[in-house]
Write a structure and sequence with these properties.
Elements: E1 20-22, E2 37-39
Length: 54
């Protein structure tokens, strides 16, 4: 979470751990069981490996 809005968090801006993050492939605003998802780590980081165009 970046509180200052400058794009890079500082030491007093902790990451949001264990947040569910998903790719809304059908753009309906709801996580469906077939959509890729993950949880953020202790620093608030997450990543996906997707094919180009997804």
């Amino acid at each position: 979470m970046v509180v200052r809005g400058l794009g890079k968090p500082t030491d007093n801006e902790p990451g949001m751990e264990n947040w569910l993050v998903y790719v809304d492939t059908n753009r309906d605003g709801i996580r469906n069981t077939n959509e890729p998802f993950t949880y953020s780590d202790a620093s608030g980081n997450y990543s996906f490996t997707l094919a180009p165009g997804n």
